Amino acid sequence: MRLADRNPQVAPARLVAELVPPPRFADARFATYRPDPNEPSQAAALAAVTAFADRLAAPPPRRGFFRKAAAPAGRPGIYLDGGFGVGKTHLLTSLWHAAPKPAAYGTFVEFTHLVGALGFAGTVDALGGLRLLCVDEFELDDPGDTVLVSSLLSRLVERGVALAATSNTLPDKLGEGRFAADDFLREIQALSSQFDAIRVDGPDYRHRDAVDAPAPLAPETVRERTAADPAATLDDWPALLEHLARLHPSRYGALLDDVTLVGLTGLAPVADQNTALRVVVFVDRLYDRSLPVLASGVPVDQIFPPDMLAGGYRKKYLRALSRITALAREGATR
Questions:
Q1: Which residue from 164, 172, 187, 321 has the least number of CB within 10 angstroms?
Q2: Fold adopted by 33-203
Q3: pLDDT tens per residue across span 126-184
Q4: E strand or H helix at 130, and its extent?
Q5: Is the whole model's pTM more than 0.85, yes or no?
């Protein structure tokens, strides 16, 4: 079957119901996070997020008739800042599992899609009763979306919702010019006092043992291996890109329902920024579902041209390359 032949319809209620950690992180817990002993910031981040979870789980302070309410023990939000593959998402999903419910979890992009589906007021109402909202991959490269989501989070904090967020720094910018707390606090002034920012450094765990993408497969090999799996899909890369352009990105997850393996032939660098940004969302949904990839054409780490990797959306593209390379390695071992 081809993904390009699928046209899923996604009701707004499904978008809300799916605000939970993705299958890849369904079993993530604080106890299974393994800090790198050479990176002390990872152990410190684990301790800080665990303490935040404990504070959320603690009963609220009692108020007497003549007694003022106790001051909060800390800020209502925690923000994990670090490079690719240092375990921030593992920590964030562990927090979701440990926190009292109701709680919601989604990527920055998923929350912008939710506002598009429900409207701003509808989204505030849908999420306003939560105990915790987790936002993975917070992004500052689109001013409009940044203002939208920061306004949403401000409204939710007013309703007593605790926040947790992660974001990526560029690996070559750690320590200087980094996307870290300074940029976050500057760009989202309304939320600056709500977050405790925690730095998480280290190498990308997805590529500790191998850095380069696996060699591309022959088109015949991709076709043979996908034909052997009745739940696999097989698409020509240009045709799939055209199909993604016709679908709203909020439907990319449903596009992969019941799929176990994704085959792609004719992989080539994308030609424009809009296509590249759609590919980023598509790769994120592949990675969420732990779907191995079989590909022919250029190596998977060459789908974004050098000029894009040097541009304003480079952190998105680097994250996507890290993820699709890991999925291609998984596919190569099948």
A1: 172
A2: Rossmann fold (3.40.50)
A3: 999 999 999 998 876 666 777 788 889 989 999 999 999 998 643 334 333 334 445 55
A4: none
A5: no
- CA torsion through residues 313, 252, 157, 169, sign: negative
Amino acid at 119: G
CA atoms of 178 and 248, how far apart (whole Å): 31
Q: Domains of the chain: which residue ranges?
A: 33-203, 208-332
DSSP for 50-97 reads HHHHHHHHSPPPP--TTSPPPPPSS-SEEEEEE-TTSSHHHHHHHHHH
- In whole angstroms, how far apart are CA 248 and each of 116, 238, 309? 10, 18, 24
| Strand partners for 297 | 267
Cα–Cα nearest to 294, from 260, 258, 247 = 260
**Residue 70: its pLDDT value, please?**
39
Closest CA to 295 of 201, 232, 218: 218
Q: Note the pLDDT tens digit of each residue in 274-296.
A: 999 999 999 999 999 999 999 99
- Contact 275/188 with Cβ under 8 angstroms? no
pLDDT reported for residue 66: 46
d(CA 160, CA 22): 25
SS3 17: helix
